[in-house]
Amino acid sequence: LPMILSQTAPAFCMGSCSFVVEKSKESTARVVVWREIGVQRSYTMESTLCGCDQGKYKGLQIGTRELEEMGAKFCVGLLRLRRMTSPLEYSLPSNLLDIENELIESSCKVTRYYTFII
């Protein structure tokens, strides 16, 4: 999922990701869910209040528009991950694939018109 987001979401930075389980993080939900329940893909996604230091949003404050865009790209990322991990058993209606491509190629104004249920 992080690799997919790094390819599609301009506000996501793979270089800022950390997959190390530090002692101070052992009681966090993502680590507990991973260790005790066995969830393979358990992540924490954080946002900034100060702005971005990379990509097309470098030097800009993060606002509602950018957060909506990230939410849409996250949904598209989940959709892609699902297709990549179980392609034979998972077929999508063609209009969802069109929406996926639109969201990847467009700005966040498209995100205001679609609702995703995954």
Automatic annotation (TrEMBL):
Ligase in keyword set = no
Q: Which UniProt keywords apply?
A: Carboxypeptidase, Hydrolase, Protease
Specify the superkingdom: Eukaryota
- State any single GO MF term: metallocarboxypeptidase activity
Q: Which GO terms describe its biological process?
A: proteolysis
Active site per the UniProt annotation: E46
Q: Which InterPro entries does this UniProt record tie to the protein?
A: Cytosolic_carboxypeptidase, Peptidase_M14
Q: Which residues form the Peptidase M14 domain?
A: 1-82
The coenzyme or cofactor needed here is: Zn(2+)
The UniProt similarity line reads:
Belongs to the peptidase M14 family.
Protein's recorded name = CBPC1 carboxypeptidase
Write down the species. Eurystomus gularis
Upper classification of the organism: Eukaryota, Metazoa, Chordata, Craniata, Vertebrata
Q: Which gene encodes it?
A: Agtpbp1_0
